[in-house]
Amino acid sequence: MGMGRTPPVGLMRITCTVNGKQVSADDVWAGESLLYVLRERLGLFGSKNACEQGECGSCSVYLDGKLVCACLVLGGQAEGREIVTVEGIGSDGALHAVQEAFVEAGAVQCGFCTPGLIVAAHDLLNRIPEPSTVQIREALAGNICRCTGYAKIIDAVHLAARGLAQSR
Amino acid sequence: MKPKLPPAALMSGRVGEPVRRPDAALKTRGDFPYSSDLQVDGMLWGATVRSPHPYARIVSIDSTEARSMPGVRAVLTHDDVPGKKVYGLEIPDQPVLAIDVVRYWGEAVALVAADHPEQARRAAHAVRLEYEVLAPLTNPELALTENAPRLHPDGNITRAIKIRRGDQNARADVVVTGEYEVGMQDQAPLGPESGLAIPDGAGGVDLYIATQWLHIDRDQLAGVLGLPHEAVRLTMAGIGGAFGAREDLSMQAHACMLALRTGRPVKMSYSRAESFVGHVHRHPARMRYEHGATRDGKLVYVKARILLDGGAYASSSTAVISNACCFAVGPYECPNAIIDGWVVYTNNPPCGAMRGFGSVQNCYAHEAQMDKLAAALGMDPVELRIHNAMKTGSTLVTGQAVDGPVPVAELLSRIKVMPMPTAVSGDHLDLTQMPGGVSNTTHGEGVRRGVGYAVGFKNVGYSEGFNDYSTARVKLAVADGRPRVEVHTAGAEVGQGLVMVQAQIASTVLGVHDVVVLGADTQVGSSGSSSASRQTYITGGAVKAASEAVRDRVFALAESELSGLGRGGSGESDGWRLESDAIVSADGGVVITLATLLGEEVIEETREYRPRRTSRLDGETGQANAHMQFAFAAHRAVVDVDVELGLVKVVELATAQDVGKAINPQAVEGQLEGGAAQGLGLAVMEEIQVKDGVIRNPSFTDYLLPTTLDMPQLRMDVLELGDPNSPFGLKGVGEPPAISSGPAIVAAIRTATGREIKRVPVRPHDLTL
User: Fold this and answer.
1) CA distance linking residue B227 with residue B494, whole number of Å
2) B700–A51 C-beta distance less than 8 A
3) Which of B126, B409, B647, B728 is geometrically suited to a Cys-Cys bond with B436, CB 3.0 to 4.6 A?
């Protein structure tokens, strides 16, 4: 269980845009991940820490519009860039259609995977507004859910696609 | 000072309605606070120093350097444990921090608290430990022998079970034998072990924690901390899944010790790698079976030898081996049986509770045996099962007659006739549907399809004389001009939907629309564990009982108020019911609204609910009425196998399960789907690889979990046959889906490949070499 690491090299101030607002974090260690900065420095706990090596997708966020695992991005790499987290998907007080669909379809159990799935499903529907089940399965294959067996998650994405199509 | 916790939501919904869970919206927004999200000002971070050896004597611990490092506030060892130095669910054999010996790789040895989690991790690394490394005992067969090193004072056998039923010398026309092995599965809840301990300044502590059973944590912590129960208060934080992984203590005692020592709030949150050594796993099993049957396919006897590797500490091993033996034959009538089971200590990672709890392992064996027997008899495997299926009144090998619906034959008949998926066609090649997937390893060449069936069962609730009960406090009062019910229990919402179920039950009994379920904590009596598929039954039963007590007082109050007004008298309430926030008479007229009746009055009742008592297995014969309810499910699997590469694609699963009564049908479906996925995982991909006592794959990169590309569609047939003994006729739902799903998949792989598969998870080389 070796934990040997080199000591930190200085502390950083990181300034970036998160969910449309410019924010900065002080005294960031060089080794802190974007996930750690979002959670522990900026108080945005929606992105989840389940595997912290990019396998489970629970910390999925947009970085300059691209879907990434925040655990695999260094905090310092976020400097000057634009991040959207699960907290930025809905609007104040209202759920986004993807979020509504997850609630409606029963796609949420323990919910630890849910924020990552919301961001990943949101990204999928941006790219492919009416995905097939196969496309949904492929797009969400990087998001592990241990509770649901995925059936209701796939239902939810179809439901969200229909909802978004109607509102267009 | 309190961290942010899951809020109590206003809910409504009746028993049987497919209601939306109240926490779902928050969870989709990322606003639901889990135990790993807890924080308060001035909080320190704890880290754990863990053993790099599976078995070693501790020669010395030197924390001088660690203490002097920046940000470090405390370094603790076993010397600092204030109370009892060992704990355990059934046997107090596990040191809070290793004392003189470490018995598994990753065992906790020392603790650090520091300002930043990385400072804590580095200081943990700087604690100097000198070990005398010992040869680990990692083979459970060897652990049974006289010459093996004794890992605990009473020897290496944690529990031995002997079941003897009927004629011990029974002979049969047709005999089949088999040996089967099940690997070590991880519960892999996505939420890491985590919590926040806050000292109260008066020697006590408040712990915010994700656990399956607050009160058993509290009882163990009070002992370890040397504090009275009232000085150790637990409050449930948001739980990111459990599946058995949160039955034992992980970081609870450690965080409390650090908080009490530093006088500061201390948070601990495991990494995924640490989580793999921070909780117990599903017991690996080695099983040898012999089935004897008549020529027309009736079981005459079953002989089984079941060996479970319990790893370094007991955890719930004694109950797991009991289940593995009680249900060793599967849900079949069998007049004669000789079942011997052992669970042993080794220097492998400790094993304990995981969804299915002993019934998962034996199902692989008894279902493989039934298929072998069918082949030997030239019978259809489903027909053979139906021919031997338990029914109401059938007797288990433990001598217990099973009452209530026992729909084994019906479940099998139903999955047999469900529509089949279409075969792969070359015209519209979809690689995601192929074995090997988008790795593009086949376009159908070498792919064989197989269909397999399995059925399983297990007990609901705690067995063998355990004092299983739950407590509920239900309060009825008027809020904002409307009657509102408040429910308070300590039951753990692990994701299964317990909060909503409690609200539905209270709403149904009291006929009140608005229900609030308060957060779980130790300010109310125990609810028992969110384990053994028991919460809806037992905590649901407690909420029902407390709600009925409130209803009785409402009726009494109404009788007395109305007689005061000259509008009736004693006995008036016959035929009354509560509906739509009012008392309604037999003819449907509103007698009085609850808002009017109650005014400022608050009616509150607390009830404990106990299901029927059970008794301990007889030591010599294993005979007893050891279980209070049984739940059954059957699965059919359709599997494609690339027989050249040994790659498997589960094409479809189908299931039928009797849930007695679906309190929340949407949540029930979620249990059936999620449980089947965990069964699939054990069948074809999930295994903690342990070599010489060391876990080789403690990460989600190397421990493979089913994804959307692995888990196929699940066809479902949910039966509601109603158990006459349980609240609303319900049955425990959570575990049966995880029992027979995997064995059905393995049966399908056998059909596709013609190979005798003896071990799960099935690996490519098992299918090709």
Assistant:
1) 28
2) yes
3) B647
